[in-house]
Amino acid sequence: MSNFKKWLKAVFSEEFRTNSFSLKFPNTELFSESPWFPPALFIIYRLVVTSCCVIFTVESVYNTPSYLWLVQFDNWSISTVCLYFVLTTLLLIYYTTKTWRDNNIEKTKLDEPRAEKGCVDDEQGENESELLWAASEGGEEEDCEDKLPCYHKIVWLLQTIAANSILVVTFCYVLLEEQLNALVLSVYLSFSVFMIADAIFSFAPIRLLHVVYSYVFTLAYVFVVVGYYFVVVDSQMPGMPRFVNRIQGPFSSVMVSLILILGQPLFQMLYFTIHKLNCLAYFKYYGY
């Protein structure tokens, strides 16, 4: 129990630092690995989820075939989830095929010195030791080279925004919608389950302070809605966005404010906890 407390203290001390706002991470492989699935099975799973996301996103476009699609917060969220799974699935396929190709090349090098192989094994061990993402005593993470390409940073950013925004949409719909539509609710719940399951099945890191990017995403939507209102206020207004129409009266206003302001950090904490427990379970199960 004492070791768990030390680990927990190290994790949170590492999280609440200024560099935790950044999109820097030394290990790119963690964005395309699963601790529980072999690569081939993980690719199949991701392809199925991505296909569902694409179908639901296209369906949302057909349901609102005009510029009004752009002012619906649920469409923003669904599209972000879809884009995240498309990009992360392509990343997974790329790294898996690259790994298989590299392994085949290594098998042909029978004359490779054993000492060199030992160095490769040591490097792999160091990469695996980074999975807990806990603070090092000497502050080595600050000196680590930022090896994360721009593509990975975009995927990481989309992961945070999509994971939080879809829960915001789901909670607001369940709590504020007067007449729940079973099909719409199933779509929101499916996307929420997809993001939570992704936190369980993948090793992509999750940082608590990245919730600020979700706030920026929400604020951007507020600016779009305000701009939309002032642009069409003098013309025939076809209707306000669904998300805005659900805000009627003090109760709904308070609920939306709580979900947007206090709910998103709690959602981020949920994903963060899942990720850390996932890493801890992996280390306890495999012993490294």
From TrEMBL:
Taxonomic lineage: Eukaryota, Metazoa, Cnidaria, Anthozoa, Hexacorallia
A cellular component annotation (GO) from this entry: membrane
PANTHER family in the record: MARVEL DOMAIN-CONTAINING PROTEIN (PTHR12242:SF45), OS02G0130600 PROTEIN-RELATED (PTHR12242)
Organism of provenance: Desmophyllum pertusum
Protein name: Uncharacterized protein
Keywords: Membrane, Transmembrane, Transmembrane helix
Transmembrane spans: 40-58, 78-97, 154-176, 182-204, 211-231, 251-274
Keyword Metal-binding appears in the UniProt entry: no
Keyword Transmembrane helix applies: yes
